[in-house]
Amino acid sequence: MRYISTRGQAPALNFEDVLLAGLATDGGLYVPENLPRFTQEEIASWAGLPYHELAFRVMRPFVTGSIPDADFKKILEETYGVFSHNAVAPLRQLNGNEWVLELFHGPTLAFKDFALQLLGRLLDYVLEKRGERVVIVGATSGDTGSAAIEGCKHCENVDIFILHPHNRVSEVQRRQMTTIFGENIHNIAIEGNFDDCQEMVKASFADQSFLKGTRLVAVNSINWARIMAQIVYYFHAALQLGGPARSVSFSVPTGNFGDIFAGYLARNMGLPINQLIVATNRNDILHRFMSGNQYVKDTLHATLSPSMDIMVSSNFERLLFDLHGRNGAAIAGLMDTFKQGGGFSVEQERWTEARKLFDSLAVDDAQTCETIAEVFEQTGELLDPHTAIGVKAARECRRSLDIPMVILGTAHPVKFPDAVEKAGVGKALELPAHLSDLFERDERCTVLPNDLKAVQAFVSKHGNRGKPL
């Protein structure tokens, strides 16, 4: 399997090199040169497989030539063996044909665990084989950071620096990052918003001279391995509901477009998906594109669903690449237009093509709380604010009541007590046993100004297990 850049000017790489590269040298994102496609008979034969075995079958084509089958199977068994539910990603029924796919049974109670528990193990495997050491600099709007730290904390050949917006993540999210200590773990609170953090990560990839020869690796969803891992649970959910003999639709809470792009890929790989709904909050750049062909920056607002407080959706470039016939030069031009002017539209026929599969809705905080309260009253199920946005969007945008609708349950509600409290459901939230003492644990975090040079100087000083790079 070879991977190419969405902007067409970077060399094609194998899986191992893509894993370590993150962002392409031309500023683009890596995608498979050719997507594997499975027959309906092949997909049907996977019904009833344990999650890690299904993951092997779905992901194997992406790593062929880089990781032997036996090693990859072992990595996957270890990855999903740490999840607290035997089904790994169980389905919970809300009504007759509406389901929540619970993706929060991993160590950090969020869907990011599916990819980042795997990414940490893949990095350890590849780096040990190569005899290399790397630095991770990642940005988080809440959940990626803790999942990345949890997935990489035991990696012998990795130093990890996670940037989060100061005072803009929930207390549980922050503490899940700042209470894990290790010589290779560094939390940085940036006096800015998530987009500022993400921009620093991208700028650091573009010029890595501050690392003095050490390689920079991405844990954000610009890293192909994260997208790859998320494809699996679309197959998993569909197989539980009669797929591939019947189509399934999905509503996906998304800010950076990575999770829903994985669903788009699952469909292109042969899974019958009828509809994909982009569910977002007040920071609605994706909704404005899907509903009106306007991909334009706006003011970033803090909301009750902070993991989606994102204005620039990095992975959207991967979809644009396909919509433009995989023309790298066209994407480079679009991205330059966006950088210079803050927005763009695409040709009508390309937008119409996207609308055949995608619908969207932007949900504000009041509607989010109403949905949390409504679902709790109807079913006794308590939703986190991101999942509630997915439910609201599913109910507003659903094309067919005959087709099962799966809402991706992206996080455990205990991570967002403010939203639950404002919804007025009056249910006490208890942390799972492994996090029961979270609020008593010591924290370690460094607050830095919204300044790229200051961040890079900190990384250079504290990398290599505390020895300057």
TrEMBL record:
InterPro entries referenced in this protein's UniProt entry, alphabetically: Ser/Thr_deHydtase_PyrdxlP-BS, Thr_synth_N, Thr_synth_N_sf, Thr_synthase-like, Threonine_Synthase, TrpB-like_PALP, TrpB-like_PALP_sf
Record Pfam families: PALP (PF00291), THR4_C (PF24857), Thr_synth_N (PF14821)
Tagged with keyword Repressor: no
Domain Tryptophan synthase beta chain-like PALP: 92-329
Key words of the record: Amino-acid biosynthesis, Lyase, Pyridoxal phosphate, Threonine biosynthesis
EC number: 4.2.3.1
Gene3D superfamilies per UniProt: 3.40.50.1100, Threonine synthase, N-terminal domain
Known cofactor(s): pyridoxal 5'-phosphate
Catalytic activity: O-phospho-L-homoserine + H2O = L-threonine + phosphate
Protein's pathway: Amino-acid biosynthesis; L-threonine biosynthesis; L-threonine from L-aspartate: step 5/5
Domain annotation Threonine synthase N-terminal: ranges: 2-80
Annotated SUPFAM superfamilies: Tryptophan synthase beta subunit-like PLP-dependent enzymes
GO biological process assignments: threonine biosynthetic process
N6-(pyridoxal phosphate)lysine sites (modified residues): K112
Keyword Amino-acid biosynthesis belongs to the record: yes
MF (Gene Ontology): pyridoxal phosphate binding; threonine synthase activity
Domain of life of the organism encoding this protein: Bacteria
Homology family: Belongs to the threonine synthase family.
NCBIfam families noted in UniProt: thrC
Protein name as annotated: Threonine synthase
Organism from which the protein derives: Pseudomonas brassicacearum
